[in-house]
Structures are given as C-alpha cells and as structure tokens.
Amino acid sequence: MSVKATDVRKGHVLEKDGDLLLITEYIHKTPGNLRSIIQIKTKSLINGAAGSMRLSGNDSVDVAFLDRKKTEYLYKDGEGTYIFMDAETYDQFPLAEELIGDKMGFVSPNSTVEVTFHGTTPIGVELPPSVVLEVIEAEAAVKGNSATNVKKNAVVETGMTVKVPMHIGVGEKIKIHTDTGDFLGRANE
C-alpha cells in the first residue's frame, strides 16, 4: 500500500526493493520557507542492516502489510533454528536465529508468543513488556552486602543470566523486562 512520506511513523514497516525496513527513527523538518524534509532511519527485518532515507513531503513509500499470529514455541533444533506452532492450524514452522536475535532468552518452551508474518513468511517475534521466569541457579548471598544495592548473577530457566538482588534464590519466580533484561521484582503468582 503506497502512502505519502508524511503519513509514516516510527514502528511502521516499509517495502523497498524486496526488503522489509522497520522505521526506527522519524524526523520531519520544515526549514524556513523551504519544502519539508523527512529523515528516516531504518533497520532491515530480513538481514538486520541499518540504513537511512531522506524524503520530501510529496514522496510516496510502500508500507508493508504485516500479520501477527499467536503461536507456541516448541523447541530449538540442533541447527540453531527455533520451531513454533500456529495456535489455530497446528502447523509447525521454523524461525532462524538471525531473525530473532537475543529475544529467545526470554521465552521458555511451550509458552505463547506472537510471531509477525509478511504474507506467509515469519519475520520476527513480538514479546510482552515483561516475562516471568524461574531462577535455576544463583550465586550465594554474602553477609553484609544487603545494605547496599549490590546485585548478583542468576540463571533463569531459559539459560539467560540476569542481575538480581542478593535476596533472590533458586526456585523463585522473577519478573524480567524484555527490552532491557532488567530484574523488575518477584512474580506475584
């Protein structure tokens, strides 16, 4: 679908030369009595390359139609590919590790995840703002360190290492921010 450059915003996905470009930054400038200039920074959803575009207010761009589906994460195969299952049709499909990046450290097997599709091709994973994971390994607390904001390493059920306060122990469920990987607190389950 073709739209004017002034109608796109940060977070939209553009189609250009067979590539899907996520808009990561959008700046609309109107210097003095000149025509408007639109600076867009993008990230390719296909290969991860960063880029930029400079457009005028009259230019048109093609916005990609993306579909999100609820899926279940099943497992990671030996080749570094993650296997998901569509919750409605029970069809299984792979998603390459390069497309997902570090996001799978927040996803445990058999959990529900939204996968973004372009047509019938899966291109990425949408995570909730925070997830609850169980601590399976934690360093021992050192007496006397609890008075300050000292943190220790803890390994959660997905294998990811998170910095947590000294009072968190093995077996506890903790809430983790998916954008930063920061500890948010104990889970209220």
From TrEMBL:
One of its GO terms (molecular function) is translation elongation factor activity. Residues 68-123 form the Translation elongation factor P/YeiP central domain. It holds the Pfam family EFP. Belongs to the elongation factor P family. One of its GO terms (cellular component) is cytosol. Keywords: Cytoplasm, Elongation factor, Protein biosynthesis. This is Elongation factor P. The keyword Cytoplasm applies. Its main location: cytoplasm. It comes from Engelhardtia mirabilis. Pathway: Protein biosynthesis; polypeptide chain elongation. HAMAP family: EF_P (MF_00141). Involved in peptide bond synthesis. Stimulates efficient translation and peptide-bond synthesis on native or reconstituted 70S ribosomes in vitro. Probably functions indirectly by altering the affinity of the ribosome for aminoacyl-tRNA, thus increasing their reactivity as acceptors for peptidyl transferase. GO terms for biological process: peptide biosynthetic process. CDD domains: S1_EF-P_repeat_1. SUPFAM superfamilies: Nucleic acid-binding proteins, Translation proteins SH3-like domain. Residues 131-186 form the Elongation factor P C-terminal domain. It is found in: Cytoplasm.
